[in-house]
Design a protein that fits this description.
Length: 567
Amino acid sequence: MYWFFLILAFLLAGIKTQKPKKYQKVSVIIPAYNEEETVAKVVEVVKKVSVVDEIIVVNDGSSDNTEQEALKAGAIVINHEINKGKGQALYTGYQQAECDIIAFIDADIYNLTSAKVEAMIRPILEGKTDITKTKFSRASGRVTELTAKPLLNFFFPEISFEQPLSGQFAAKKEVLKKINFESDYGVDVGIVIDADVLGISIMEVDIGAIEHDMSPLSDLNLMANEVVRTIIGRANKYGRVTMIDDIGHDIRMSIVGLSLVILGLFTLFFVKFVPLAIGVIVSIIGIIFAIYYIIKVIVKSIDMFRKTPRGNLIRSFIKIHFPLIISIIVLLLMISTFIGAAHFEHGVLSIEPNSRNLIIYADDSPRDNTISVRGPYTVDTAIENESGEIRMPSDAMMTLGVKVNDTIVIDDESYLINETRQGEPDTLRLPIQAKKFLDVDTGDVIQNSRLKEIFEGSIITHSFEVDNDTIKEKFIVTSRDKNASSYEIIIDNNSVVNSSGIFKDNSTYDIAVDGEYYGSFNYKDGLNETFKYDGHKVKISFWDTNSTSIKVFVRENQGNFLNFNFE
């Protein structure tokens, strides 16, 4: 049997036992100055909290019975001979506390409950944070809204607590060793700022409504002064004044320099009445300004990072530098546009930037998008074995009112319209004969607005697929937008086509079926044309619309306006 006990011993030795989590003791510090009416009630409430091990009341030089009331309630009392201020009272209690977690609670709260106290402490016990501060509903808060929040937003924009001066908070004792306690009302905001800058985790906990005495204006004035002094002092200590004032000035000057560069480049390429020399001079001055002040910003920022605790500094740093970062991005985008438009040939550098075409439709025409941005397009030669095709970007198709598999006639030659090749979204590939007639060459960059001028006079046959049937409309591209009318085709009581283009009043338009002439009609506003073919009833309705078009529908001597192919 000895082998059995030997195996059992090895198994027991191999089992890893988890070390029990260390019990964390909790102290509650209650600073009190002439609070004989409420201090005992606060102590009694805290005593009901099961996780609290120690209650210390710091009697800050009270002249009433605060000490006696606290002792009767069962608290440990530490006395200051004179009033030293809230911050010093908190510090005294913190120094005397022997527990791992310390909570600070005001002595003048009328409606304190054990649930409110435990809500402050529980997140730290559960390891969710190092410090908790409270937020709550109350009638006051004037110093917070008028003094603390504006200054914090200016110097420490990463701090966005609803109530940075709440007064009730809890923390691990070990992290409080890293924090400088102010001796007065600045202690609350000082702890919040120190924790944030030092990277100590802090959580804001909502404990509901709090009722306590409203401070008189004289006390609020003192409190505001002490809060302002603390925030300004921390801003100086942590380099935020330097960041905003000194570095801020250099950032503003850097932006001025970058703006001058952008202005100079803009005048060079887009403002004809400004002499070339002025654009060059403005750009050079801007470059000098930008380089000089950006270097200063970098040097001072590095120096500030070396001297200041990191913590959440990077968030404020980004916010302060954000305008400069945006200006640099704008300039880089502009320069990249110019580089992309540069051509070097036969010892000559040519830069001709082409912008995209923003189109905003304000008419009633049926379209997929009211706002779109199109072009520019780069001309290239049709690839081998595609001399009868034009590969056209989708944006260009929308501008000309065509789609894949439509046909376009250029100089009496018919070409099939196809989509662009993969990786060439803005490349317009044209057969050699089409390029010659349209007077464009390989490498030319065409703005979207010029397409109608280049393709003016081209005849396009545009197809509508309706189940197994096909309806084709034919139109001529014009370079000028003109008032358009719409038409609808209804076959067997089903609307199958809605389109628009330019009609001429009292002109004759031909209709064909399967390519053979079938009939004609004279156009006028409000016309309803009907006919029957092979058991189908066809109705075409026309009406004027508040729209324009570059599609001029062909008349009787130019071809068939509509061609129906019924299966």
